[in-house]
Design goal:
Elements: E1 3-9, H1 17-20, H2 28-39, E2 46-52, E3 57-59, E4 65-66, E5 75-76, H3 85-96, E6 104-109, H4 115-126, E7 132-137, H5 156-169, H6 172-176, H7 180-185, H8 191-197, E8 205-211, E9 218-223
Parallel strand pairs: 1-7, 2-6, 2-7
Antiparallel strand pairs: 1-9, 3-6, 4-5, 8-9
Helix pairs in contact: 4-8
């Protein structure tokens, strides 16, 4: 059974109100669109959450992550925190959503994973008798403005606009062709997870959100 639905969300820790504190309302729209996309995964049999991490790894449903390094005494899952930030935010989103009860696993992929390996992982995820939903966690370029975490890059906006259009059109060819070297230069953390998504077939896309409120490109998309 191929992947039957997918949600694409960013993973800034400020998405979590306890982390954002007094600035939580700044991302109300982004938070709402993320939950809309994740809610659409509720009818699947099984969820796979994909995001980047310092090392590749696979984690079961109760794996833990923490927002303590970001100033909030808040954990997800149980046990010692092992999930990288991208998957911790993904777990938090799922726990707020209508898809909270769907069985899930987590997969971390390194930011420098080559496209062929990302696509192979996507095909592996789809090799199941279940109706699989994907939650794909990834930020766009962190070089979108002079106030970005990394200094403004002249190619950042075009790169993010290309990704936004591909997510809206479910254009897997464009996502699969994203250049890892350019993505690394632009500090686009979502490149590898998006290329896992690029292995899916037959879905229709809708871009729900694209903005760079803190100089980092954030996308929310729903594929069904």
């Amino acid at each position: 059974m191929p992947v039957v639905s997918a949600a694409v969300c960013p993973h800034p820790p400020l998405l979590v109100p306890e982390v954002a504190s007094g600035a939580a309302s700044d991302l109300d729209d982004l938070r709402a669109f993320c939950l809309t996309a994740v809610n659409a995964l509720a009818s699947t049999d099984r969820l796979v959450v994909v995001g980047t991490g310092p090392a590749a790894g696979r984690y079961d449903a109760d794996a833990a992550g923490t927002f303590t390094p970001y100033g909030a005494s808040l954990d997800v899952g149980s046990g010692a925190p092992v999930l990288p930030l991208s998957l911790t935010v993904g777990a938090w989103l799922l726990n707020q959503s209508k898809a909270a009860a769907v069985p899930r696993t987590y997969v971390a992929i390194t930011p420098d994973a080559v496209p062929a390996d990302c696509l192979a992982l996507g095909r592996e995820v789809a090799e199941s008798n279940d109706q699989v939903g994907l939650l794909v966690m990834g930020d766009g370029s962190a070089r979108r403005s002079e106030h970005s975490p990394v200094h403004l890059h002249p190619r950042a906006e075009l790169f993010d606009s290309t990704v936004a259009a591909a997510l809206h059109l479910a254009d897997t060819t464009t996502l699969a062709a994203l250049d890892p070297t350019l993505a690394a230069e632009l500090h686009a953390a979502g490149r590898a997870p998006w290329q896992v998504l690029a292995a899916t077939t037959g879905l229709t896309g809708e871009l729900l959100y694209h903005a760079a409120p803190y100089g980092v490109g954030y996308f929310v998309a729903s594929w069904t």
